[in-house]
C-alpha cells in the first residue's frame, strides 16, 4: 500500500509534487489538476499559497457556517474560516493586481517601442522621398543634356 493520500475528486493516489491540501473546513487532498489548476499554473504557485489554498466546496457560504456537535453554530470556527477565506482572497487579488500592473507596464513598453519604430519609419520615408526628388531632378538634367547634345549633333 502506498503512503500517498488519495484525491477527493478522482480517488487516485496523489504524488507529493502534485498535492494540494485544502486549508478550509474539509482538509481534503486534491490533485492540482483535479482542483482545477493546469500544471503550468501549479508550478508557479508560491509555497505560501499551497498551504493557504481552500477548495471550492469550502468557499461556498454554507461551508463557512460550522455547527458544533449539539447543533449550534460554532462562531470561533466560522470566524476562523472567514478569516482564511479573506486571506486567500486577498492573496488572490494581490496576485491578480500584480499581474495586471505588469501587463500594463509590458503593454506600454510595447507601445513605446512601436511609436519609436513608427518614427524611424517616418524618418526613412522622408529620406527616401528627398532621395527620389533628387533622382527626378538628376533625370530631368540628364534628359536636357541629351536633348542638347542631340541638337548639337543635328546642327
Ligand atoms: Zn484527482
Ligand atoms: Zn475544502
Order of helices and strands: EEHHHH
Tell me the strand order in the biggest sheet: 1-2
Largest sheet descriptor: 2 strands, antiparallel
State the shape: rod-shaped
In DSSP terms (H or I, runs of 4 or more residues), the helix count works out at 4
What structural category do the secondary elements indicate? mainly alpha
Q: Into which percentage range does the β-strand content fall?
A: under 5%
List the helices and strands and how they pair.
Layout: E1 19-21, E2 29-31, H1 39-43, H2 47-52, H3 61-64, H4 75-154
Antiparallel strand pairs: 1-2
The structure holds zinc ion (ZN) (2 copies).
Describe this structure in words.
With 155 residues, the chain is mostly helical. It has helices spanning 39-43, 47-52, 61-64, 75-154, and strands at 19-21, 29-31. Strands 1-2 form a two-stranded antiparallel ribbon. A hairpin with a 7-residue loop joins strand 1 (19-21) and strand 2 (29-31). Bound molecules: zinc ion (2 copies). One zinc ion binds next to loops. It comes from Oedothorax gibbosus.
Keywords:
Znf_PHD-finger; coiled coil; zinc ion binding; 155 residues; binds zinc ion; 2 strands; two-stranded antiparallel sheet; mainly alpha; 61% helix; rod-shaped; zinc
Describe the structure concisely.
One of its GO terms (molecular function) is zinc ion binding. The protein is mostly helical.
Amino acid at each position: 500500500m502506498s503512503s500517498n493520500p488519495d484525491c477527493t475528486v478522482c480517488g487516485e493516489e496523489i504524488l507529493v509534487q502534485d498535492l494540494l491540501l485544502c486549508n478550509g473546513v474539509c482538509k481534503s487532498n486534491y490533485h492540482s489538476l483535479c482542483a482545477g489548476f493546469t500544471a503550468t499554473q501549479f508550478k508557479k504557485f508560491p509555497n505560501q499559497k499551497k498551504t493557504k489554498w481552500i477548495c471550492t466546496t469550502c468557499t461556498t457560504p454554507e461551508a463557512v457556517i460550522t455547527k458544533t456537535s449539539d447543533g449550534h453554530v460554532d462562531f470561533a470556527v466560522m470566524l476562523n474560516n472567514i478569516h482564511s477565506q479573506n486571506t486567500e482572497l486577498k492573496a488572490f487579488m494581490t496576485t491578480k493586481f500584480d499581474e495586471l500592473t505588469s501587463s500594463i507596464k509590458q503593454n506600454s513598453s510595447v507601445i513605446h517601442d512601436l511609436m519609436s519604430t513608427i518614427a524611424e519609419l517616418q524618418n526613412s520615408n522622408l529620406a527616401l522621398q528627398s532621395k527620389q526628388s533628387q533622382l527626378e531632378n538628376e533625370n530631368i538634367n540628364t534628359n536636357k543634356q541629351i536633348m542638347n547634345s542631340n541638337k548639337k549633333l543635328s546642327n
